């Protein structure tokens, strides 16, 4: 009798896990990426502006979480979520500690005016 209960419990557990995986949405993936990582960049692997944004963080000795939209099946859906979230569907879109920095030019400007260091909790001299 207990073997049947175990089998039923395992079956129910697998059904719940499968259901949870099926209900994951691009919106949940975007929110998770933004709030689970110190730095998140939504990017396309071939985009020169994305490369510049990633280079800014590399020069700061930071390792951002990068979502390469062109390499994902749901990349277009994620880009639509970003449009709803930040009003832009261009890449890159950079987030630091949950704060939307913006695109490549915005990130470069935030670096120049010290805002990026502030968001990262660094002194400007730490990365120079």
Strand order of the biggest β-sheet: 2-1-3-4
* Proportion in helices: 55-70%
Radius of gyration equals 19 Å
Number of structural domains? 1
Structural class label:
alpha+beta
- Report the CATH superfamily: Glutaredoxin
Q: Which fold does the CATH topology refer to?
A: Glutaredoxin
What does this structure look like?
With 128 residues, this protein is an alpha+beta fold. The protein has helices at residues 2-22, 26-36, 48-59, 75-86, 104-112, 115-120, and strands spanning 39-43, 65-68, 93-96, 99-102. The protein has a four-stranded mixed β-sheet with strand order 2-1-3-4, with helices on both faces. Helix 2 packs across helix 4. The longest helix has 21 residues, at 2-22. It starts with a helix and ends in an 8-residue tail after the last helix. The mean pLDDT is 88.
Question: What is shown here, in short?
Answer:
The chain is α+β, with helices and mostly antiparallel strands and 128 residues long. Helix content is 55%, strand content 13%.
Question: What is the strand and helix layout of this fold?
Answer:
Layout: H1 2-22, H2 26-36, E1 39-43, H3 48-59, E2 65-68, H4 75-86, E3 93-96, E4 99-102, H5 104-112, H6 115-120
Parallel strand pairs: 1-2
Antiparallel strand pairs: 1-3, 3-4
Helix pairs in contact: 2-4, 3-5
């Amino acid at each position: 009798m207990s073997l049947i209960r175990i089998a039923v419990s395992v079956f129910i557990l697998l059904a719940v896990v499968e259901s949870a995986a099926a209900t994951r949405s691009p919106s949940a993936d975007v929110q998770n990426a933004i709030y689970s990582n110190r730095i998140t960049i939504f990017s396309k692997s071939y985009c020169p502006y994305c490369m510049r944004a990633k280079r800014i963080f590399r020069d700061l000795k930071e390792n951002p979480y990068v979502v390469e939209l062109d390499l994902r099946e749901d990349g277009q859906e994620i880009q639509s979520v970003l449009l709803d979230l930040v009003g832009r569907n261009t890449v890159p879109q950079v987030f630091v500690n949950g704060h939307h920095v913006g695109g490549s030019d915005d990130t470069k400007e935030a670096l120049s005016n010290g805002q990026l260091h502030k968001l990262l909790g660094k002194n400007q001299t730490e990365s120079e």
